[in-house]
């Protein structure tokens, strides 16, 4: 009988433990957590103020987030060189370059253009040389010995194409101007001209942008440069093909998609953007936008004479712009503005994006 009590005790203990576990599992709650795909980060440079940048980018970010069912975030790089590094380091998966910066910075990098915008019916745009309306500067020649503001040495309207115009006119900016400044922002250049910090500046077509209509009457338009191909949306080829295809398809359909039409209307007011098109269609449009059409468009748009006509891009592909020389050829170097931090990564590299 001695063995009976330990055996009975063991049975009771096991039974009690079983019942205890049954009661516990009955009260456990199962929380199902759906894995959220990592965000796609769109990189831009601070060509506008932070608030204005958000206003311009939010329609695209919100639309893509809705179409791809994943978060889209904005990352603002210090300049185009930093943006290129961020794309290489996967800190951004999509980057918006100017045409000039894309052609000069891509080198042997395996970058792909997804789309470019059509703005006011064109796949190209024009830049402006501006001064203060009530000031003494009325012509390019009046700028001799004055202070001149560029945006960034990789900016098409804010550096590269104005320098082509200066070269056509036999002007070496390093000798012609008393001082050259790089502001890193079209807004900073425009405001600097208006407040007298700079005598003149090279900027985008401020006179047809509704955001600047209050400032336009205060500006003198000395010259127009271009045509300049519109800005490309770029990805690295290590972005998974399904993600690239989804982004490209969404952007190409944005103007016709009910989810994107409100965003396109906002972009049309802000930038004249009507839709986005593929690189193949851009090439065809640029070939048809002849020098004569560009000159007539510029004359009608500004009322100022065309002083530089860019040759049409070849049908085989977009023009490849040579990198600006550091000195001696009418192309000033691009030092960082005084007091500015050296450009560099703002956050650690991100993990590869999952399809």
Descriptive labels:
355 residues, alpha/beta, six-stranded mixed beta sheet, 11 helices
Task: Explain how this protein is built.
- This protein is an alpha/beta fold.
- It has helices spanning 4-27, 50-68, 80-88, 99-105, 156-168, 173-176, 186-194, 241-253, 258-271, 279-288, 291-302, and strands at 40-44, 72-76, 94-96, 111-119, 124-132, 147-150, 179-182, 200-204, 219-229, 233-236, 273-277.
- It has 2 domains: 40-122 and 230-298, D-Maltodextrin-Binding Protein, domain 2; 124-228, Periplasmic binding protein-like II (D-Maltodextrin-Binding Protein, domain 2), CATH 3.40.190.
- Strand 1 (40-44), helix 2 and strand 2 form a beta-alpha-beta unit.
- The chain is globular and about 60 Å long.
- The N and C termini lie far apart (69 Å).
């Amino acid at each position: 009988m001695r063995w009976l009590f330990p055996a009975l005790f063991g049975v009771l203990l096991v039974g009690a433990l079983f019942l205890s576990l049954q009661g516990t599992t009955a009260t456990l709650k199962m929380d199902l957590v759906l894995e959220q795909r990592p965000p796609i980060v769109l990189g831009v440079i601070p060509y506008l103020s932070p608030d204005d940048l958000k206003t311009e980018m939010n329609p695209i970010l919100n639309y893509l987030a809705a179409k791809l069912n994943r978060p889209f975030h904005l990352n603002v790089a210090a300049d185009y060189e930093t943006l290129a590094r961020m794309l290489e380091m996967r800190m951004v998966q999509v980057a918006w370059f100017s045409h000039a910066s894309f052609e000069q910075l891509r080198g042997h990098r395996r970058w792909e253009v997804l789309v470019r915008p059509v703005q006011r019916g064109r796949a190209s745009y024009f830049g402006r040389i501006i001064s203060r309306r009530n000031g003494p500067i009325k012509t390019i020649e009046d700028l001799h010995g004055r202070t001149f503001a560029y945006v960034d040495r990789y900016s098409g309207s804010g550096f590269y194409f104005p320098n082509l115009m200066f070269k056509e006119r036999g002007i070496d900016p390093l000798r012609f101007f008393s001082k050259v400044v790089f502001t890193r922002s079209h807004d900073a250049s425009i405001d600097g001209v208006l407040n007298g910090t700079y005598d003149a500046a090279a900027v985008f077509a401020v006179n047809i942008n509704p955001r600047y209509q209050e400032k336009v009457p205060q500006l003198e338009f000395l010259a127009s440069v271009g045509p300049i191909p519109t800005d490309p949306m770029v990805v690295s080829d290590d972005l998974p093909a399904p993600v690239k295809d989804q982004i490209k398809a969404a952007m190409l359909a944005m103007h016709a998609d009910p989810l994107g039409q409100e965003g396109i209307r906002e972009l049309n007011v802000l930038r004249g953007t009507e839709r986005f098109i593929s690189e193949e269609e851009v090439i065809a449009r640029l070939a048809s936008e002849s020098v004569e059409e560009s000159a007539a468009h510029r004359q009608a748009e500004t009322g100022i004479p065309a002083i530089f006509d860019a040759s049409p891009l070849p049908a085989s592909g977009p023009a490849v712009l040579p990198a600006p020389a550091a000195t001696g050829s009418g192309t000033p170097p691009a030092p960082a503005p005084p007091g500015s931090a050296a450009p560099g990564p703002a956050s650690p590299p991100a993990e590869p994006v999952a399809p």
